[in-house]
Design brief:
mainly alpha, 4 helices
Amino acid sequence: MTDAIEKGNTPFSREVTMFASVVAIYIFVVFFLPQGFATVAESLKDIFEQPEAWRINTSTDVVALVSHLFSKAGTLLIPFSCF
């Protein structure tokens, strides 16, 4: 038995790895995704309800608006970069 372990002749199940990945994604979707979508929706609602609050006269204003949107969306998408 120890010879088999040293040589790397041990059984390996790909199904277990796939199952663990699916369970991890499911847990993320159930527990974290709804709050993330709510945050992004709230941010978009603020922008569309009060467009006068966001001035886009200069490039700095546009960068501020885009960075605000990307920061809100990024918090939702960052966990997907792990997969």
